[in-house]
Design brief:
Length: 250
């Protein structure tokens, strides 16, 4: 479980996050939605410690993360997996070397054990026989799968995904959504996903948090979202034909 308490963040004179409090549940796909520029990515970066909040707390279980020193933060970061928006694979490294990276950084495992873990993770995301290929030789969907394999290499308790469907076609987006959800359920991970993709919300949104101009305006499940009376949320949600049709069918 990750708890955010009264978190605020400004850059120069612009307040980007305004007193946000939310609990992200264990074993759930927790989706943070909102328009571009609403503060989703800044919130994610504050949670993982890439930005220091001006006010408030970020707690991993009962530990206040932003009060820790660098050594203690490193111990928690060993439990974190990150899936970046573009995948963020190292272009000059092979698939195998990309998935090995966190294992080399954070563990003293023998190389044979590391390679076994690499192959296990690649198999888990349904790609095989690609160990010695480079990212430039992979499709967009395969790159995201490799990035997920790297994110779960350390058996994380917490998984963060920033716009995981960015740049993918609708069919591949659904496959990636389902894969993230399967891994979340299978390993009982606390997963936080930043997205503006309403298909993802309706497919896997166990818990949905709506951010509007830096403030948390609504939270609930993907079924609750269709009955919300929050105008800003409705303007965001029903901008797509998918959710309009779902509203009518309901």
């Amino acid at each position: 479980m990750i708890t955010v308490e009264n978190l605020s963040k400004s850059f120069n004179d612009k307040q980007v996050l305004k007193n946000i409090s939310v609990v992200f549940d264990v074993g759930k796909a927790n989706l943070v939605i909102g328009q571009s520029g609403s503060g989703k990515t800044v919130l994610l970066k504050c949670i993982v410690g890439l930005f220091e909040p001006d006010e408030g707390k970020v707690k991993f279980e009962d530990v206040v993360f932003n009060n820790l020193g660098s050594k203690e933060k490193r111990e928690i970061r060993k439990k974190i997996g990150m899936l970046f928006q573009g995948g963020a694979l190292f272009d000059s490294a092979t698939v195998e070397e990309n998935v090995l990276f966190p294992l080399n950084m954070f563990t003293d495992m023998p190389i044979e054990e590391k390679l076994d873990r690499v192959n296990f993770c690649l198999k888990r995301v349904n790609i095989i026989n690609v160990n010695h290929l480079f990212p430039s030789e992979l499709s967009g969907g395969m790159k995201k799968r490799v990035a997920i394999a790297r994110a779960i290499a350390l058996k994380p308790q917490y998984l963060f995904c920033d716009e995981p469907n960015s740049g993918l076609d609708p069919k591949t987006s659904i496959l990636i959504d389902n894969l993230i959800k399967e891994i979340t359920d299978e390993y009982n991970i606390t997963t936080i996903i930043n997205t503006h993709d309403m298909n993802s919300v309706m497919e896997i949104g166990d818990k949905v948090v709506f951010i509007y101009e830096g403030s948390k305006e609504w939270e609930g499940s993907n079924t609750d979202i269709l009955d919300s009376d929050n105008k800003n949320l409705n303007d965001f949600v029903f901008a797509t034909n998918l959710t309009k049709k779902l509203k009518v069918k309901k």
